[in-house]
Amino acid sequence: MSNKPPKHSEVKKKESAAKRMRASWGKPRAAAPSIRIRPERFLIVTEGTKTEPYYFDGFRKRINAGYHGEYVTLRVCGVGDNTVSLFERARAIAIADPDGFTQVWVVYDKDSFPSRDFNAVEERCASASGKGTVYRAAWTNEAFELWYILHFAYVDSALDRGSYEPILTRHLCAEGFGRYEKNRTDMFDILEGRMRAAISNAKRLEKSNRGLAPADSNPGTAIHLLVMELLPYLSSGALGDCVE
Question: pLDDT band at 62, cuts 50/70/90?
Fold first, then answer.
């Protein structure tokens, strides 16, 4: 290592660099180049043409109005098909869309359809997922109204479809919302504050059905998995604090 003192020119050069650095402190930096991220695009295709679309339309209106398609977009289609044919219809809609979807959800009930077909939708969703699009099954055994009931109470005994309406009516009347009727357009607004309770009850039910196929899970639902994907795009008040 040399013991020679630094040259005058080198000292001036360092002092000049330090002076420029100090002068830049506090000044706004140039903006980093923006990288456009592909927005999350949801497609929800439902077996029902009114009950389920009316409910999920509550999410659609809120999310699309809040983000204007910049970060997330939600499309809801009630097509009237069921199980396997519903999956095929969902895939056709997704493929035909010029912008594509990151998540495609197939929403359907058990009803009286063969167990083989009811279970097959999950398998087909798994097989179709890839290339930027994930297909998911949001089933309910037996009917979609089970998801509504879980907003008020935990249910783990098998229910026939005919018992759903009186149970919902009892809970709704107790809250001052009147009788339950299929195809009510206000269920999203009524239930919004109880979503945390519904998710908690659905998870508990999911745990009790662990190891069972969807057709053997009565009562059972996967609707909460879809709702949990959508909740981050709603206001914080949507979660509520009511857990029973």
Answer: very high
Q: Of 163, 166, 244, 169, nearest to 199 (Cα)?
A: 244
Residue 87 has pLDDT above 60, yes or no: yes
Indicate the helix (H) or strand (E) that contains 10: helix 8-24
Which DSSP string corresponds to 171-214? HHHHTT-----TT-S-HHHHHGGGHHHHHHHHHHHHHHTTT--G
How far is the C-alpha of 241 from the C-alpha of 233, rounded, in Å?
18
Separation between Cα atoms, residue 163 and residue 196, nearest integer Å: 24
Q: Are 195 and 239 in contact (CB under 8 A)?
A: yes
**61 pLDDT higher than 70:** yes
Strand locations in the chain (E): 40-46, 72-78, 103-109, 134-141, 220-221
What residues form DSSP beta bridges with 157? Answer: none
The residue type found at 240 is: G
CA–CA distance, 125 with 180 (Å, rounded to integer):
32
The answer to whether 51 touches 183, Cβ cutoff 8 Å, is: yes
Cis peptide bond upstream of 142, omega within 30: yes
